[in-house]
Structure formats: structure tokens, C-alpha cells
Predict the structure.
Amino acid sequence: MEISPAYVDVAMARWQAETGKDAILDSDGRTFAEVKAERQGDDAVLPADTPETDNAPEPARKRKTAA
């Protein structure tokens, strides 16, 4: 399980892009976009179908090893 919000945001954005569905917080019904905007302190809520991946961390890369 991811504990870093940046990695969770990337995973949620990818899930939404793949499924075409909005991620909904089970406890109160807010969308992923609403939760993310609130956490970042934004007043405007981003549309859930527009994943924001510009601030996404780069995925870990495997090291090449000599054979």
C-alpha cells in the first residue's frame, strides 16, 4: 500500500484513465478530484476525467546489471 500522496494520486489517475470511471471516496462520496484539490488547497475542483499527471513522480527504474 502506498503512503505517499503523490504516488496514490498517480495510481488513482491511471485507474480513472483506464476504466473511464470516477474514483469515489467511500466514506463521504467525494470524487478523487475533489479530495485532491482539497488536499492541495485549491479552491477549484478539477474534472475527474482530466487526470493531473504533470506533478506525478517518475516511476522507479530498474538498474541495468552487467552480465
Notes: The chain has a mean pLDDT of 77. The CA atoms of residues 17 and 59 lie 17 Å apart. DSSP finds two helices and no strands in the chain.
